[in-house]
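Annotated sample (chain length 409).
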Amino acid sequence: MTKNKIDLASNLSFGFEQTFTITDWWTDPGFTSTSDTPLKREKMLALAKELADELKGKYFESKDIWDHMQYEVTDSSGKTLFYVTMDPGSIEVKTEPCLIDQIEALNHPLFIAAERAQVVPYRTWWYGIKGGTEGGCHVNMGGFTPETNPLKANPSLMVKYSAYIHNRPWLHYPFMSLDVGPEGNAMRMDEKENYDLVLQKFDEYNNLKDKLDAQETYEHFKDCNLIANKSSFPSLFKFHQPLFLVEDRGQEAVRSARELYLVSNLRLKVLNYLLTQDKIEPLKSIESLHQEKLTSFWLWDKFKEWSQKLEIQSEEYQVFFQRQFPKLSMGEAVPDNLFINEGRRPRVITDKVIKDGVVRSKTVDTSYKRLEIFSKNSDAIEIQVDGLEKFSSQQKSQDGHFYYYLDVK
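Output written by the structure step:
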């Protein structure tokens, strides 16, 4: 399977780790901080029953890799398609791998069953916004067998992919949950420690005279934070024998089978493009990344510009940006030329609970906040707010709006 003959659509498999929680998640604190609770077991069983009914299959109890109870759900032929498991932050459903053109049909029953079991793929916050579950919503890419795995056959493709994603934050931040920035669940390589070692390893890889196979590629990068720290986007933590999977952790707020297809098709488009490229992009350092570039207006403008080059219809992806930067309601007599979005800034983590090498919970300093202000005209806006840290200068986006952002504590 040479580089020019790899048919990714026919060989690259996609598997998902989709998460769900209860609508009133705050009423049972253990549900979002502990793996095993009575209510979580009750909802896992309800989801497994509804999913088996939708598939005209069966469900049975087994153990996951952590020796926790889980339910396996089969279709009418007896093939296991879903694993309903417990996660510290949510209920997690792992799916069997499938090809890009099978994603919607195979995963549509999951969201129907979730609705019937009264679990949801988001958290509703006290001010009305529906955000991510804060659990894993990972996209796993690989192959059905070692012999047909296109990533194993062309491991340099994964190195190109890692650099490509790193250099384009608009493929990263808009698809995540609130957990962005250092100490997050899907950090960029330059948001973690020892970034200099990453740069060194990429430089060494580019200058190798002999090509490395898949396992050798893993060994080359395993000591740098692309692999050593699992909380990466992308993550090559699982890119080793025998499966050679790539786990994309920078994914949240997927609420339908169609959206699973969209995020997978985006990855497929990128990988197909990279098959045409001989060289690995140099890793870029992006100035003001956690300032004006971590805003909906900058990220959306860059995404629209980028999507045209890869012939991707950006409109279908706008929903991810709207969820990550939701519009806020503003009471009575609201000016019709002004609206405000909830913004994002890197969360400040004050404490973490780690068990068996897995982060079970985090304590977040919620006193840090960012808001984005959009105006239809260029009139100056005066801000009066306690704890103002930064008020950006006015800028203009591609859609003609004038915008600011403000950081408060």
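Annotation: The chain has two domains: 1-283, 287-409.
Annotation: The chain has ten helices and 16 strands.
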